[in-house]
Amino acid sequence: MVSLNTKRFCVSCGREDVELIGLLCPSCYSKRKELFSVPRSISIKTCKICGSQWSSGKWMKAGDVEDTIYVEIMKHASIDENVKEYKADVELSKDKNGKDIAIVIFTGKIGNENISIRKDVYINNENSLCDSCMKKRGRFYDAIVQLRSKNGNLNEKRVFFESFFSREIVDNLSDVKIGKEGIDYYFINRTIAKRLVSSITSMMKVEVKESFEGESLKNGKRNGKLVISLRI
Ligand SMILES: [Zn+2]
Ligand SMILES: [Zn+2]
Predict the structure, then answer these.
(1) For a Cys staple, 18 with which of 25, 67, 85, 157, CB 3.0–4.6 Å?
(2) d(CA 32, ligand 1 centre) in Å
(3) How far is the CA of 83 from the centre of ligand 2 (A)?
(4) Over the range 5-29, which residues count as b (16 or more CB within 10 Å of their CB) and which as e?
């Protein structure tokens, strides 16, 4: 006699008495399917003057760059319909060649089995100018603050330096030029540039050198753009 008791089993591993998703048990399903797919890379833009970020087709005030990247990745991610209770955590890191990556850890459930999957997404972060800074660009400048690093680690120094930027300072910048030797900040008003420099020198020892660019004598008065070199 043929048994009518047809047990359901996973077609891949043969396990019985398990919850099946289609023909597979949760564990085989997880192995065979791409549960989470993300783009290989995403592009974001950061305004080099005010730090605004381009995401979802518009410029947004400088926020947490991780949030912008999270939104950008999730916009392009696809998640298998059988994954339940999923969440994604994003952490910024570098690959072995020093390229920026976002490590995305997806967690969730397939059936009643917990899953955790890591995906790496390359980040192309383009230095750019936002619309409002673009409008200011080319405006008159009266002072340049040149940020230079004593030990070559400019990025760290930049973060420190820019932590002194108030709204007033950001609004006063007409350009930022990033070069090999350092970063040049162009100020519309030299008083604001000087105030920034003195608030930094009151906090720590820095080498400050002042000079003038395009100096000429006009009616017996010195005339030129103030250049302040700051080596920290
Ligand atoms: Zn199985
Ligand atoms: Zn901007």
Answers:
(1) 25
(2) 10
(3) 40
(4) eeeeebeeeeeeebebbeebbbbbb
